[in-house]
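Reopening closed ticket. The problem is back. First fold of the pair:
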Amino acid sequence: MKTNIKALTIAAATVMMALSGAPKAAARLSKALNDTASVGMNALDYTLQKPLGSPLFEDKTFGDHFFLSGGAGISIYNAKPSGGFRPGVSGEISFGDWVTPVHGWRVNVGGGTHSKKSGESWKFFGSISADYLMNFSALLRGYNPSRRVEIIGALGAEYQRTRHDAVWGNIFGLRAALQARFNIQNNLYLYAEPRFALYAGNRFPGDGERRFRPELSFNVGLGYRLLSKEERMRGATPFVNNGDSHLFFGVGGGAWTFARKTVSHHTNPYGFGSFFVGKYITPTAGIRLKGEIGRIGQISDISNRYLAIGSLDFVWNLNAAFGGYRPDQVFDLSLNVGPALAYADKADAKFYPGIGAGLTALFHLSPQWGIFIEPDVYMFTRSLNRRLNDRGYGPFVSLMAGLRYTFGNFSYDNPQSYQDFLKAENSFFSFSGGLAKRWKGSFGKGGAVQIGFGKRFSPISSWRVTAEGDLFSAWPGYLTVGIGADYLFSISTSMAGFNPYRVFDLSGLIGVAGGVGQYSGPLNGYLEGRVGLHGAFRLCDALDLYIEPQIAGNSLIGKWNPGWAPEFRCMLGLQYKLGAPMTIGSGLADSFLADGRNFISLSGGPALFSATFVAPPRKVSGSIDIALGRWFSKVSGVRAGYTLDIITRQASHGERPRISTVHADYLLNISSLMDPNPARRFHILGIVGTGVGFSNLKKSKAGIMFEAGGQFRYNLPVGIDVHIEPIVSLYPDRITPQYPSGASLVATGRIMGGLSYRF
């Protein structure tokens, strides 16, 4: 009885103590309930009470904690590694969402090969799978979006469509994984994930008789997680109204090949070059135009084949999409998807449509410059594989690396440097020549010349227009004359600011050209695209010496042409810099015209007549010219004259042609237009004109002539000038009927030297 009384007393005391502490305990429990996201899990909270609920996101909506990742791995399928073992290789893309800080899901799309033994053929597969995710770090230590390392478990199911020796099959399985996630920044992470799976389904040779086949794999990859709106905006850069054009371009090179090759196809990959230009329309989305050209593998006896691919890509900037627009981040990743068009030589269709996709990983060296790595995959129509891959069908893959440049607001970032640019002499003339070599064909030794005029319109960017020509010696000869347009961007200025006294300035170049050319037949049009580098050494305030290696792709248009071919040139030249534009109302009294606006000139020199020069044996002709002219201002003038071309005939023709031309020309003093220096003695003139030409040959008919060229003039005392004048004239072929070229036009190029007297 005493024992019962004692027990009741202790129980009553316990109840009283519990009741007296109930308000405090209730307050503590109400604060901790459903709040392990803040305080973590505490085992004492689960003693003598109902277990706490799972932590929740506030105002959770579908996809607001979205993540995207991609990775690759190696695997061991249904076998132990032994002699001759080959591991499987696979890649996958995953996307998912966190429903709570602890619980989430993901869906995965992948493909690759299963491991095999030496001598066995590969088993290929494509897969789709879904996993349940549990974040152990958030469960045990509380939710912390700034945590550097997280441990995540995954349980899921997978379906594979397999192929082995042209036999298709289906495999189903269950899998479990443990992922170690390393957060590089709030929205970017790396992961390493060992994974174990059990599969059942179709059996292939080497699978054995067991019902379930195990696979152990190890995967690594990169992922992005979506930040909240507040997190994305915190510290982000405004996309609009910051002076940036959001333009970018890049150059690169790499290797490409067919992912699946036939027995008759060479197995090694081939190199290619690439150029792209693009613009971001929003912080996350942009467009990009990309061109690639290179060789592809040999099939049977067909070799030296070239492939060009152009694509228009939609660019999705994953950094901006998941973490806000931050162009100053060191690492940037973009997804590119869009239509593509391939051009192939030695193929029937020539053009093949397709679609491409790739990733661009960019590492910033400066706000404008970065180096990138880009893997790409293309799928073209089956006809491309039939013609270029000997009927083997599959994706066309490439891996490229290179440099990318992004246009910024130079005047905002470098105000003093921009003021120096406004005071500098930013217009220029250039003259260069060099050696050239064409691949794909026997063209022999070659050379190129360029005469250009340009202007630096920003501290970084310049444009240049050129008159140019190519000549190659091997029969049947290759000759082009045309006009080019180049864009140059100063790498030195973009990385170190504008400096007009810099000893060496390195620029990149991209350009196009077009004109007329000849190869084993009549004159035809030609088109060209090119990229290169421009390295200028400062000799003095007005003169630079430059070297310019170029890589071009060009082709004649018409029946008689050798097709598209890459061409390499190394140009060496001089660049003459001009000053600021003169005013329209400037006078003549203080100029070189002070002692006379009228002039008479006499010139002579070698000439190249297309009907006798383009095919061997090539002959050099001669020309003389006399002209009378007048300067209306320091900039503009006219002249009228008579030109006699004495054509060196070929042995198979009769009478020597003599072409007479009466012409009228407009003269533009570009030096005085750009720099009103009255003490200048050296001048560069532009010339355009027209006239009437006729010859001494029987059945010759008069025809209209058009000409264009330039003149380099130096003033001597007492009104005498000396000059060198390269000029090209175009005539209808009716003026030389006994020298048919098969073209509707014939051309005469002259390099004239002479004297002028001003009075």
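Second fold of the pair, where the issue appears:
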Amino acid sequence: MIFYYNSRDLKYKKPFGAVSCGKQIDFRFEAKDGIFVESVYLVLTKDGEQDVYYQMNYGEKEGGVSVFDLSLKIDDAGLYWYKFVTNTELGSFEFGKNKYGELLQNGEAYQLTIYDGEFAPIRQSGGVVYQIFVDRFNKGEDKDCVWNKDGVLKNWNEDVTIIDSDGVFRANDFFGGNFKGIEDKLDYLKDLGVTMLYLSPIFKSSSNHRYDTGDYMCIDELLGSENSFSRLIASAKQKGIGIMLDGVFNHTGSDSKYFNKYGKYDSFGAYQGIKSPYYDWYYFINYPNEYGCWWGITVTPTVNKKCESYRQFILGENGVLDKWTKFGLAGWRLDVVDELDIEFVNDIRKTVKKVDKNAYIIGEVWEDASSKIAYSERRPYFQGKQLDGVMNYPFKNAIIEYVWNKDINIFINNIMSIYENYPLCALNSCMNFLGTHDTVRAINTMCDFDISNTSKEDRLHIRLPKDKKQAAKARLKLATAILYALPGLPTIFYGDEVGLEGYEDPINRRPFPWDNMDTELLSHYKSLGTLRKKYKKAFSGTMEIFADKGLLHIIRKSTDYSQNIQFIFNNSGEKKCVMLKNEINCLDNKAIDGEVSLENGEFIAIKQKNV
């Protein structure tokens, strides 16, 4: 190719990736001899606005290459796009990128994220998150826990219910996991290297998942009391662990204080009359039985987030966010954040940060959050006024695809596209995972076991064959090691670390198997957690990622260069050897100087002796 540019190389764009407002950006574009180039323009477009042409400066030739450069400062946060236009003796040509980020004539525009320079979430950087589906993690002795549900309280070793006898799924089988149960296992969590607990919804509800909130101001009685919750927060803090709650503000339950469809609450709910103080919270189509609801699920009526009384209830002084953040929360995870309008998310951030400027705001986003469009609106999640991070589904998808397909170049490109688009402070605050309460269990995802002709009832009873599970465990070890090496917060869905099986919801929400843990897998997770703790500064810094002779290399460096750690992964399908000189094995602290063999699926973590 006559022309060359690489947005991922500091020689051609500096600084790398997203840039803060007002910081100088240096671009370099090259043209090889063989065609006369009259001029080169960088065409910059703020999202939704007109193109702006900047003529690049012609510099000296370097070995038969003409160099064009340009320095810019962009003062307004936002999402920008850019291309190059070359005017030559043969005509004008436009260049963007291909799907691998390489320069391509008439390709897609390069993305440039500009964010507020004061946006710098760092509180959880370098840590480990543990996601707990509270009803299913552990059941402790707490006199404040009260059973008052319309459902069934099961024994811990029973299986979950996927459908009731009348053909309806009510999610009303409970196992009694509670705050005291979590408190009792804090040492276990600390040994995993956990620094943050993300709890599924804890407010009063009729379901076991509690995403259909009944009363935002009350702890669900089956979990304990406000005192139980305070004790958990305090005990976790002593272990260096923060508590993050799941904020479900797009919808309530139909069985709630606010909607009160079944009359179970001592309130005048919206379903009971148009003069209800909550009537304007909802979208009634044909009152009272037709109303807007999340994904058509009638037990979760959608809330009008522009309704002033609802906004005050969630955002105001002594409102939902104010009350619970003051308990000492480390942060909030916002459920279906793309269903919330932009101003509502802005105000959530303001409310939470007013209580604690270091509190962590995470959003549930399944795509590239830097350029997300929802309801025809571009979402400014990472420009400084909304989210500190997101649930990083693109990384999950990239890791799983790489483990199975072994295409190292596709994997690197998938990772680099996110690394390039997200502000580093935001990426280092994202939750990276292999499974959640919404997905198939990690061990099942890694298993080569055909379930294509099975029913949900079949999948409830399937247990992975021993040989298949052993192979799946090997893949899971590799996948988790990659997960822990990447920028962001590795996140464990409770039970994944001990091989808990399960297909789709609710089969993936079984009780934690305390009496049947895979200790080998658990040891693997603990060793990775130890690395994260020991090299926290490196894991809070930058990343280099590249392929060499079929091996994947990921290098993490602290911004002050005081720590570095390099991972080398073999997912090639065959044994590989690598020459190492003057290195330390970070897993056992032994010196390495010479050839190291890595079987397929193995990895090594190393650092230079003098660092």
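Update: turned out to be a display glitch only; the data is intact. The first strand starts at residue 3 and ends at 4. Residues 116 and 384 are 5 Å apart (CA to CA). Please close again.
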